[in-house]
Design brief:
single chain; 323 residues; alpha/beta; 7-stranded mixed sheet; 24% strand
């Protein structure tokens, strides 16, 4: 297993510092137990090519010093794609040196707070940039009690009724504000959400209980990064979507013995291994970690390895992964 240690370059309280020290020590021991360790690359991002940076490797509970789910795809040293913006990722975005002006695309896999809550904060920060070009954004179509991306944006940004109506320029482009150009992803075959000469982004719906959720495939040159999102691993179409990815990010939220709602929402480690084993990515990144999956991290990684025998990276905030 290859492990990229996260960076902690900010002031921490004593209790949090101790928890992070124990977590880092435990993961180091895990590396020694089940494989070789590799330190974080000296340059993050790499000046050329594609680098995946984990902004948030945690879940919805503020108990582990991790931000919630968020990722940046760097292309030739620029922060071109943001996938998810969970709580705490606003801070990590700045710590990573990412720039709102460089973003070509934002994908919100679903609208749970641990994947979307910091998006309005990011917009407000971007309001101080010199960006004028529109910002493409994609997310799920609504279903039942869950709103779609358009309703989510309106609830925040509508000038008359939005919680942050003062940021309404992001909906209508007034006063030179970069206008969001939303795209909702419906069930069905994968679709191209945005493309340029350098980058192509596709999305497909994935099963996350009753919650509409989207997986993303980002292609830049010869590199493909697939974000599985929160899903239970039951749709074989996702294997085709992820097949041959340079890097596959999957969320190890629950332990193997999960039942009920947790199992309808999330794939346990053995299923993650099965999915990755069929998709055969160059590297598998295990992220969205919580106390219930960290409690026996070594055992859970071993369960993944039963199905997938390639390189595994256990995510940490601000860690970087290259193909």
């Amino acid at each position: 297993m290859k492990y990229y240690a996260g960076k902690y370059e900010y002031a921490l309280g004593a209790e949090v510092t101790i928890r992070i020290f124990i977590k880092t020590l435990s993961t180091f021991v895990l590396c020694l137990t089940i494989g070789s360790c590799q330190s974080q690359p000296g340059t993050c991002p790499e000046p050329t090519g594609v680098t995946l940076q984990v902004l948030g490797s945690g879940g919805p509970i503020a108990d582990d010093g991790r931000a919630s789910s968020a990722y940046v795809v760097w292309v030739d040293g620029k922060s071109r794609v943001l996938i998810d913006a969970g709580g705490g990722s606003f801070l990590r975005f700045g710590e990573a040196g990412a720039h709102f002006t460089d973003l070509d695309f934002v994908g919100l896999s679903h609208l749970h707070t641990d994947h979307s809550a910091d998006f309005p904060a990011l917009l407000k920060s971007g309001n101080f940039s010199d960006r004028e070009r529109p910002l493409p954004i994609a997310g799920p179509e609504g279903d039942g009690i869950f709103p779609g991306l358009n309703a989510f944006l309106a609830a925040m940004l509508d000038r008359e009724s939005g919680a942050y109506g003062y940021l309404g320029g992001f909906l209508d482009g007034a006063a030179g504000t970069p206008k969001l150009t939303p795209r909702e992803v419906a069930t069905g075959a994968p679709s191209i959400l945005w493309s340029s000469e350098e980058i192509s982004i596709e999305g497909m719906r994935v099963p996350h209980g009753i919650v509409p959720a989207v997986a993303f495939r980002v292609r830049a040159g010869d590199t493909t990064v697939v974000f599985a999102s929160d899903q239970n691993g039951s749709d074989p179409a996702f294997v085709d979507f992820a097949k041959g990815a340079s890097i596959l990010v999957m969320h190890m939220v629950v332990s193997e013995d999960v039942r009920g709602v947790g199992r309808r929402l999330h794939a346990p480690p053995s299923v993650i291994g099965e999915v990755a084993g069929r998709a055969q990515p160059g590297k598998l990144v295990l992220s969205h970690l919580m106390a219930r999956s960290l409690k026996d991290l070594e055992g859970n990684v071993q369960l993944v390895k039963r199905g997938y025998n390639g390189d595994i990276v256990v995510a940490e905030d601000l860690a970087c992964v290259t193909p």
